Please model this.
Amino acid sequence: MESDPSRSARPRRTTGAVSGIVAAVAGLASAQLAAAAAGRPEASPVTAVGGAVVDLTPVAVREWAIRLFGTSDKLVLGLGILVVLAAVAVGTGLLAVRHLPAAIAVTGGFGLVGALAALSRPEASWQDALPSLVGALVSAGVLYLLVTAGRPRPAGVPPGGAGSMDRRGFGRLVVAVLAASAGVGLGARRLGAHGSADATASRARFVLPRPTVPAPPVPAGADLRVPGLGPFLTPDQDFYRVDTALVVPRVDADTWRLRIHGEGVARPLTLDLRQLLARPVVEHDITLTCVSNEVGGPYAGNARWLGVRLGDVLREAGVRPPSEGGPADQLVARSVDGMTIGTPVETVMDGRAALLAVGMNGRPLPFAHGFPVRMVVPGLYGYVSACKWLTELRLTTFAAYDAYWVRRSWAQQATVKTQSRIDTPRPYADLAPGRVPVAGVAWAQHRGIERVQVRVDGGPWQEARLGAADGVDTWRQWVWPWEATPGPHTLEVRATDGTGAVQTGVRTGTVPDGATGWHAVDVRVRALGGGGGLPAGADRQ
Model:
């Protein structure tokens, strides 16, 4: 009786798919171990390729991802890369059962892609290519082993004979490779943890200095304590994080250094943390805002920062702002992961509380927010001021150098625009009739907020009650008591800054220098005596 070719092909396809997946797992685990051993977790293939994807992603796509996934965009990117790798691994395994040399070549090609991605990263060295190459070599070896072992037994060869392996034997081999890969992955994890242990220990030992100029207590009445409205000072764990770091740098404070050099620097400086903090330390409440924040978006946070005045350090290095004849108008800050952020020299030296910050809300900076030192400049969006994991300050000009985000269609300079946001009632709220507190926050850093107004259904603007002001560099909370009547309604808010300028209602997107427009929320108020219903509202931003 003739055999059915389709039936005989199915086990081969299964063998190929399984072999491809297992080989990919082994390769990734080995690459992770190599990256951890080199002390360069950012050189692992998934992280390196993810970083390259972030760099190459068009601005519109990146902004869409931030809107859709929020601060989980990096997790989604990593999972997406793994899904693509899994699909490629299956395809490579299927190819291997038909033409093994071609599959080996594909595996090597992907290793080369990972190596080139790692080498394309800022601050990369030739060693960063090794994890991807090691992973490709291991993956190719495992693929060869499994596909060869899983081939049908040649005619006349008894079970267990040379060149043969039954299904059970192949299964045991797969389990053994997966177990070994798990061990390698665990070793990489422990080695990586050991490599960051010094950084973790240095943060645990670090004691914040007592401020020479402490911030006054937050004024009574600054926090309105309205249900649904967040606290005046944002807890560290709730503070937004938008950056390109797929792996959060963990910097050892004991070995950290800051280099200050460039045009107009009469006395270049290299400072360790102890030397930096030998200067007067100040404390200041500052609200930070991300330029990717849509109208009504969540990417703004308020904290009490502790650090050294950046302007004083620059003057110590002999830097003069352009208004005093200095040749440099741009201060390029560089992170340990190579991110560059350009800030106007005039702004950081105009007397505002521009800080080299080491503390946040009474504690050392969290790793995710830049430990041991980051920049904080009130009045500027984060992409032109808030460099985390700071390691270098270079003086240059805007004409001579474009920082990371400027090369990706964002403006060279960007002052925070006056914005206001409705935090309660929430979008899609189903409300009872009667008095409803409408509340939120408004910000215009370094100008302050003087007035907030709310209107319903396009009617006349009504004055909201402002929380007490904590200086001009923080947001202000506000609340307006609304006598809600049954039916659908649209709530809108606008703010007036300390200069008397009223927030514009003209809608623009985030690119190139921040969004504008009034935040609007649609809600429904139940009829008198009516029961609950389905939510019928929308945040219209």
